User: Fold these one by one.
Assistant:
Number 1:
Amino acid sequence: MNFLFWNACRRDISQEISELIEYTCANILILAEYDGEINIILRKLHKKGLNYFSVPSIACERIKIITDFDPNCIRHLREADRYTIKEIRLQGESPIILGLVHLSSKLYSSDDDQLQEASYFRHDLEESEKDAGHKSTIVCGDFNMNPFDKGMVSAGALNSIPCLKTAKSEVRKVKGKEFSFFYNPMWNLMGDYKEPPGTFFYRSPSYVSYYWHFLDQVILRPGISERLNKSTLSVLTKAGEVDFVDRYGKPKTSDHLPLFFSLEPNKEDIYEESMA
């Protein structure tokens, strides 16, 4: 199962999107800040012999979903202005909860604001897990935070950590209250050992500037993390002959670069976490 996420920066990049879907054989494409007509993308894919569908939104216009799955396999759970939570139920495979986010930008929100917003999202996500009866959960999108920011690592927010062994073996306890973990594999892509060193480039005029940021991420509950094909987790700079970066390696098609990952096939009832 192949996933793509891309913040399109409100640009008309329908051709690049269709090329990217064909290149990666994505089953699900999640778009943020895409103001174009989804039907244009669908028609371009149809001309390539690829049948994709759009998933209707209810309250979240910031996120668009395109898939080659039967839309009847995708069940709506919860939705707000900046996130949507779905459940994917494919025949013969255990269900997956998919949380998709486009959280508030640092340009307009303080760290504390982002922390609070992440906490609200976590609450809705946990309620969705209770409704669905499992915690095979993936959260993907533009968090507008780096993996080390408060909203990503705080126990009361997304509580995501870079060590799967720790995430699988422990529940974080803070002042007598327990918090379940997310595993965040994005830490493994940070730095320049594997290009590009982020999904977003911004040179801050302040004394502290990271230059490259990983605002676009995927985090997973420990139980479903076993299905992540780690070799596929990547930030894409091209699709075939279509480049998404300039000669300096910085994003040019959008101000973000697309994120790709895949899950291994799974039979029902394997890796699902207990709701206890």
Number 2:
Amino acid sequence: MEPSGTAARVDDAGLAFLAMDTGDVPVQFAVILVLDRAVGLPAATGLLAARVAAVPRLRQRIADPGVWATVDPFDVRDHVRGVRCPPPGDGQALLDAATALLLEPLDRGRPLWRAAVVDGLATGATALVVVLHHAVADGLGGLTILAGLTDDGPAERSQAAPEPRRRMRRLVRGVLAAGGLTPHRAPACSLLRPTGPYRRAVAVTRSAAALHESAHRCGATVNSVLLVAVAAALHRILAGRGEAVPAILTAIPVAGARTGAGPSGADSPLLVAVPVDGTPAGRARRVTATVRRRRGLAAGPAPVTVLGPVFRRFAALGGYRWYMRRQRRAHTLVSYVRGPARPLRFGGAAVRSMIPLAVGGDSNFTVTFQALAYAGKLTLTAMADPDAFPELPLLAAELAAELDRFAAPRD
């Protein structure tokens, strides 16, 4: 496959993500679209072939020296496959199948995406799994691309690049949001330990409207409710291991200004110490106040973007991977993205739910979390190394219980 002409240069965020992607765990994310009926592989492939034509980034590969180059001829069959869900074909089996697809590195000689049509579900329906490299898009940009593949068409989203003279100021603020050059170390516990190349996911789905209403009643945000639920669940897991920490230090990706007009971007990390004492409502209010007070620090482009070639050289030499496998800034990461409020369709089938999955390269995070709101539902996914964090079924039960506690918060 040779490029026909050139497109825009790959922005600093995309180049940074490529430089980060040097270990056993790729820097990729996926969304599972669970359909309400079967859509066969030939029909799905035909639909994707037609719709990819309207999403230029999905027909472009990254060519030296860092430009998006259109692949011509482009064959969608290089990117779409059929997958049989393993028995019993339930939600967990689908998560396992999708996670295996996510962990398979994308071919850098081709456009950095793949899709799989998953059949064999117990319901008799089909799921569509779309995997993207973080160099192509961030979470919000990924949803924009995803919408372009559905019957409902694309949703435009772009932001202008920041003025160069403001980049250093935003770099300083971003570093402060991430705890500064000498941050407080996350209290030692088994949430941070060496991880291997394998991951497994569990997911919990609740009513987005109910969570929003309960968060509003206790003077908090849905994001804060999620942070408190995750921290409480992890606190109980640690208690079962005979460990305790005063707070769960959590990294929250904050979407800020992009360094280009495309869908990619590196979110700035905001560090929040999520308390584990007090009532759930009280903890959610405290976290909301903290995030509102400090969110502006992370409003600009991420430090890895602003540092540009300096960071990329550091990462290419293995420095970023070395650091992430030893970092003590945070215990975990929680990402929350608001997806389409209205239901989508694919091949005439309704998309019943959308489940987020993400892996961010090698690190010492034994578990991370992704949340996605879609059409009245909110799905919270935990992605863990099953050897370093073996209590995934218990974690799913604890997350469900914590989210349910917000149905009627009491002080």
Number 3:
Amino acid sequence: MGRRIVLQNADLRVVCLPGHGMLITEIVPQSHGANLLWQRQDGPLHDFDRPATATSEADPFDEQVFAGGWFGMFPNAGIPGVLDSGEQMHGSFPREAWKVVHQGDATLSCTLETDGFEAVRTLRLTENTVRVDTEVTNVRAGDREVSFGEHPCFSREVFGGGTVLVEADGAHTTNEVSEPGANRFAAGQEFVWPHAEVVGGGVARVDLVPVEPDASHDHLCVRLADPCVEISVPRLGGKVSVRSDMGATPNLLFWRHFRPPASPWRGDVFGIEMMSTPGRTRDDARAADALRVVRQGETVKWYLAVSWDVRPISAYS
């Protein structure tokens, strides 16, 4: 395992691995001791001595990079499109070693130079909240189309029986599914959150985290009406709030992966992926004319904050 940096206060303990994409591996409420983030049991957690730089045609992300936790995505969020042979799944942020420039009792700042950009990510722990602010400047990339966002992976085991409360302006399932036959919700449908058509007919709620893994694998795309997503945690008697920057990341990709049969790594996890672009792939973003052109000298900023609270989740009306 790579170098671990631990930040903690009376409410939370947070563990970060700067050398492995500045990956946050643990968010643990001090009063309960359960890690809210899902970690892959056999996942790679080494410091990178060189970037995992293969492109989308032969991408080593699952084998060399993905370990769960919470990581940033840039200059590509999600999966590259048909015309994007030079882009990487989730971009270069999670694939490279970040340099620590400041470490305090409750703060950690790291920098990275990648793809012609200079990036700074600052992790702050304030009472019951972990917040990561990101600032990226185009120093020599020319005019570049980008997408970006955050990818926290939450543990189905810890959140089982919980509800994901989202205020949505619209929602749909992806046209293509990762594992045909494992998707619970019918592909290519628009729906009104939280009720969607299931495969084979009928309607079910998409917002319920199953008590036991149900072998399903789905991607649900949401246009947010409010920047805060709340998730109840019945097992711990509280809730988690995930708050983003609506101006920068107005889209949610809700990833459900509850031990589908074809998964090589037995993932029992769901992702609340706040993104600048809609959909799952760069093709989706391009079709929506949502890719952002960052010109040389320009800076983009966004943040994500995850809070633990013992107050109950808001109820649906």
Number 4:
Amino acid sequence: DRLGAAADDVYRESMDAARIRATFLPALQLLPNVGLITVLGIGGHRVVDGAISLGSLVAFNFYLILLIWPLRMLGMIIANGQRASAAAQRVAEVLSTDPVVVDSPDARPLPSGRGEIRFDAVDFAYGREDGTGAPIPVLDGFDLHVEAGTSVALVGATGCGKSTVGRLIPRFYDVDSGTVRIDGLDVAEASVAELRRSVGIVFEETFLFSDSIAANIAFADPEASQESIERAARLAGAHDFIADLEHGYDSVIGERGYSLSGGQRQRIAIARAVLAEPRVLILDDATSSVDPTKEHEIRDALGVVMEGRTTIVIAHRPATIALADRVVLLDQGRAVAAGTHDELLATNERYREVLAAAAGPAEDDTEVPV
């Protein structure tokens, strides 16, 4: 409903602007021509009457023609200035907005460690309300312990809170209650900048900048050497297609990287996370857009990257889930089961249902491909 109301407002304003343009643009074209015709008519009569010379009439027309374009440009500049002023106000609103997540007054650096993660009785809601006006909880008393250097796959139905768990670790949002700790320190008490430098994330939707591939990979460390960039690209399975480009790592990929395929963009994002050498790595459906013929290469690369590193894997595909040391099943905002992929597949009906739903309906039965 809100989107519909906003769209109607945009439509009305656009139509008003179109009506204004339909009135004034023809007028701006017509008036100078009317002026020329008037000058020719009146001036012609005065030339015939001998009141002015023919040269004076020609000069007057020439000066009038020279005047038309500067006046038109002045009108365009004034119009563009108004648009620029409105755009600047919108940009200023964004730049002047105070961030919600900031360092606490007694913020501390993260203690040394290898990335142990602990969620203790975490409650969180995005602010959407149910019929009673109460917020709809995404996580409700959520508990999770990820030992340092191990990997955990979070599995659950759509909307169960898997990605939310990944976003609470770098403190993109603050929890409503409970604590999230990295190496024993509550993330709310840690320096935000250091915390986010310590957490590498590969999202399902990859954002790349209109810059060279090397600069995109080195986003977390602009001073990284070419050797480090290429190493990260090889681990992510991106080196071969980059080398095939005309300018290699210096190729400019355009806004959001849309000159590349979805799988190529995602591999660059994985390389960017690898280069950052994070304490904690979060893979949020990181192989979802990868071509099936290349997925095994990326899984092998991820296996190397994940080794000895605390990793949260958010995935639906059994092959990707199997990369993790342990699997945690989320349901209704809580961790309801944990174990290896094979153990849960053999013992947990809900786990089988979730995988079956992610794989799509089977033709003859509901068997889950493994």
